[in-house]
Every structure is written in structure tokens, then in C-alpha cells.
Design brief:
heterodimer; A: 203 residues; alpha/beta; Aconitase, domain 4; four-stranded parallel β-sheet; 9 helices; 34% helix; 13% strand; B: 469 residues; Aconitase, domain 3; Aconitase, Domain 2; 3 domains; five-stranded parallel β-sheet; 17% strand; binds iron/sulfur cluster
Chain lengths: 203, 469
Amino acid sequence: MKQEFPKGEIKSIKGRSFSIKGDDIDTDRIIPARFLKCVSFSALGEQVFADDRKELKGNHPFDLENNKGANILIVNDNFGCGSSREHAPQALMRWGIRLLVGESFAEIFFGNCLALGIPCLTASKKEIIKIQKLVDENPKQIWSFKLDELSISNQKETIKLNLEEGAYKMLYSGKWDATSQLLDEEERIKKIFKNLPYLNNFK
Amino acid sequence: MSSGTLYDKVWDLHRVKELPGGSTQLFVGLHLIHEVTSPQAFSAIHEKNLGVKFPNLTIATVDHIVPTSNQQRPFNDPLAEEMLTTLEKNCESHGIKFHGIGSTSQGVVHVMAPELGLTQPGMTVACGDSHTSTHGAFGAIAFGIGTSQVRDVLASQSLAMKKLKVRRIWVDGALQKGVYAKDLILHIIRHLGVKGGVGFAYEFAGPAIEKLSMEGRMTICNMAIEGGARCGYINPDETTYKYLKGKEYSPKNQGWDNAIKWWKSLASDSEAKFDDEIRLNGSSIEPTVTWGITPGQGISIKEKIPNPELLPHNEQQIARDACKYMDLEPEKPIEGTSIDVCFIGSCTNGRLSDLQEASKIVRGHKVATGIRAFVVPGSQKVAKEAKQKGIDKIFLKAGFEWREPGCSMCLAMNPDKLEGRQISASSSNRNFKGRQGSASGRTLLMSPAMVAAAAINGKVTDVRKLLQE
Ligand code: SF4
């Protein structure tokens, strides 16, 4: 049942979905700071939303039997705000999340997700509430996301989503793994290094 | 689109290439790393068989996980010890300078780097930590990055980034006595909202900003991120140069004169264009305290805790949530709220002037019974200078604990934690649920002087009353 981590072009994602409701859910909640004490990300999946889950004693969306194996997360406004910790998207990814759909995402969180190959798409408040309602009513339904159509659909309903062009291109081409692109520009980087006064003793 | 601002100029100087995705490949002039967000980045470059491209441009320290009561190695917490040794090994094998435990320059990364003169105007500064915005106080473009970008910077000294819009926040007047940089930034975030700065770099300017010391300016830029702005900056001026003069990494001799000329040329032009502008009056700002669970939920000490039902529609839900979590009663004054713990420290307010201002309030008083109060200097240098000035004694005499430098209860990755429902008066930057180490712990953000006042009275207090005494 374990899914592979994202790789290559990311053009479609299929699976069950569930919601985490509420605005301004920060990364401290997604992964409380005490779990940052690790030199590898591998155990983070089990610790996602640890404090909220403890409080809800088995009734948190990440614990509900129905949601096991789901890979699409529906959220509200400003999801992932707060600390820049990449542990947050890592924890979501290692739990099994492959796609987020929400009203809006915090900027660093959005970038951190993209760098892992996890798209974060947006829709209006009205649309998100509609999806959340559909998902609540029938957690078993399969949703399918298509990047080229920028939409998510459960066969009956299709909802249009938004994604900035840059992120779209990166996912479409499979070039969301930035490092290799950056390394192509060695010469230009050296030139900037040589031209910056502060790196050359202000000569 | 902005033009002629410091942000535009520095951006252009560091631009490597426009990337297909609409972002820009940007050269990073100073890369700071610490133990929490770097180990996975090093693993990634090892896996891919990549080296560190410019090891001299990366500087490391350890701050988040260090115990503040006893820094003897090995640390009691084996996980903390493992994180530290991993960083030590990574630095050693790649030739990266590490200001570790035992070094006189160890400290919270955003405190120690400016102290060494590492942060200078016109640089691009990146660090795997959202409060990297702090370094913007020097007129640098400084922003927090995620671990995969740390990997990119190690491997290529560059990263992919979207250019931000620039909003100028112009603050007229001057801060009144008992009102500090922390109050100003809490006030700004309250009014622009925690999302107000998303997509923006904040340029802080105007008479009230110019009058601030470098340390006050760092407090302001530090919390730009709490207002949603990934970076905040202040144009360099005489205050900046004076601070930098003679620092370990500052330019010397002829280099110094050339540096000043270059730095001056980078400040925003008088006819610079901004994407947005906001004007505030600094003279009317009062000591500000948060009552809720986001840094935007702040009110002046004279105000009452808002009634969620009377707030604008989009703020109601989070306000209800906050009232429930904080267990504070709407429409009651914030002043007089009882507290349990007082924390003075962090990269927002753990610098010498912060401790100094707080010590002026503390001098000759005692911490109220039942209150646990402690001071955690932001760095070894801060600790040393504070001791030379006898500041540690003032706190100790009043019944505060005086600790070793580190992040401490700012995020409680070390043993310093709130317990249960404890409520703290804290000079740090985040009041999120569970931020200070207890899943149900509560945090009131305020200036260090206000924390000191709270410690003495055992409850939230208008610091100006103690200043008059
Ligand atoms: S003091 Fe707090 S905000 Fe600053 S770097 Fe440490 S944990 Fe982060």
C-alpha cells in the first residue's frame, strides 16, 4: 500500500481524499517542533499533526479508518503558515499525501511542497467548502486530478483549480527538482562571485 | 512593479538567470546553517555525489537544540547530541566554518552572524530558518529557505526564487518612552495581518525607523515573516556603518571606504517606485501584547480582549479559536492577566539592548511569587557583554534564572518548556498553539521590558508605570 515518493513529471494524481478544516494552520501544528530533532526525515509520517491528534484521541482526520490510504488533502486558507520547516511537507508526504487543494497556501510551504513534487492547488472559498462537503459525505469516492486541465473530479463533479504558471511548468516537465537546473549555470555563478564587491575585499 | 529600490538593486546584482518556471536563479552571498535544517540537505548532496560549491560562503552555528542550563558534552538528550555531531561532521568534511559549543561566537544564528559582521548591506543572505529576514536590518536581501533549498545552496551557491513585490512601510514620528521596536512590529502585523505581506518584501522606512538602533531594526525585520513578508529590510545609513565598523568580518582599511560608497549606492532611490505604500504614525503606538494564537492578534496594553463576534467576518473564526484556546475572556482588559512563566530571549529580543532595557525595569524589584522567570542571552557575545555590565547580577538578584545562549523556549526544542496550561509572557516571536513546548501551553508576546514588568507584578503590566517610579 505504501506509495512511492513523487518523481518525474507529475501530470495526474488519483485517490481518496479528506479535509483538515480551518484557516491559518501553521507548520508547528503540522509537525510540532519537538519532532524536528532528527537527522533524517523517515519517521515524520507517523508524527504529522501529533498534538492535534493526541487531543482528539483517534478522531483526528489523520487517524480515521476511512482516511487510511487517502492521498489528497483538502485544506482552507493560508495553510502551512509559520515556520519554514520542510519537515511539514515531509511529514505530510511520508504519511501518504501527494496533492493539496486549498483556498491558499503560505509561500514557503508552497515552495517546499513543490520541491518535493507535491502540488498545492487553490480554488475559491466556495469551491473548497463544496469539495469538503462532498468528501465528508462520501470519503470512499475516488478523485482524480489532471494537471493539464487544472481540475479535480469525482466523475460527477469537476472543479477547476488554480496554479501559478511557474509551478505548473515545473510539475509538467518534471523539473521541480531544482538542483540539477541550478548546477547547469556554473560559469555565470562564478562570474557573479568575481563581480560582487563584498566577496572581493571591496577592491 | 517596483524599481530603484534596494531590493531591486540587490536582486539584479545577484541574478544568475531567469528559469523556465518563472522564477529566478539567484546567487547567495551568505549562507547560514544550523543543526535543525541542514542534516537532510547534506544527506541529499551526499546521495547525489555533489560537493559544497563555495564552502567559504557558508557559516554554521548551533542554537535550536542546545540546553541552556548545562552545555557540557555529550548533551543529556541523545537526539540533540546526534544533531550536533552530525553538523560537526558535515562542517568538517566540507571545510565549513563552525561556531559550535565552546566557541565565543556561538549563538542564535540571527544574533551571532550580525555580531561578527558577517551580515552586510547589499548581500543576499539565505538560511534554513524563517527568521532569516532579521538580516534585512542591514540592507541585505535575506530570506528563509526550506531544506531542499539549503541543499541547492550548498551544491550551487544559488537557488530558485520568485521576485517579490515591494511594499514600503513608512513610520513617521518617534516611539514614545516604554515603547520599543517589538511594539512597533506587533502593531504593524496587527494592522496588516499575518497574511498581509504574502508576496511582498517589506521596506521599513521613515523617521521612526531611522531613529532605531541596529538591534531595534533587527527586531522589526525579524518579525516581517510573522506579517507574511518573506523578507524585510531597512536601507543602510550611518547607524548601520557605525555598527559594522571594526567587526570581525567587516571590511578593513581602504576596503572600508569603498564599502561605504557601495553600500550608499544601494539604498532605495528617492524616486524609487514601490508596489504598495503604507504610512503609520510611530508616536501614537503603545506597548502591544498578543492575546491570541497568531502574532496578528495583538492589542495595545490599554485595550480589551476583543469580542470575536464584533470583529470583521474573516477574523471571527480564528478569534473564537483563540479565545477558547487561550481561555481569556472577551472584553476584559489584557492588563492584569495573570501569568506563570516569563521568558526573555530569542532572535527577536535576545540582544544586549533587550536585556539592558529589561534590566532597568527589574532593578531593585523581585520576581512575583510563583512566577518562573528566565533570561536566555541570544549569543555568547551577548552573555559576555551583559556580564561585563553586571546585567546578569540584576536579573539574578531579582530572582530570574540566567541561562546559557540558545533558542530555548522560543520553540522549546531543548529542555526549556511550558508545562500543561501554563501561560507565558515571552519576548519571542510566535504564539502559535503549542509553540513553547506544551501542547496546551499559552504565549503572550511582548517586548522584553514588558516581560520584565510582568515578571515583577505576576501579571501583564503597562511597563510605563514601572518606568515612572
Ligand atoms: S530564537 Fe526562535 S525564531 Fe529565532 S531561530 Fe531560534 S527558534 Fe527560530
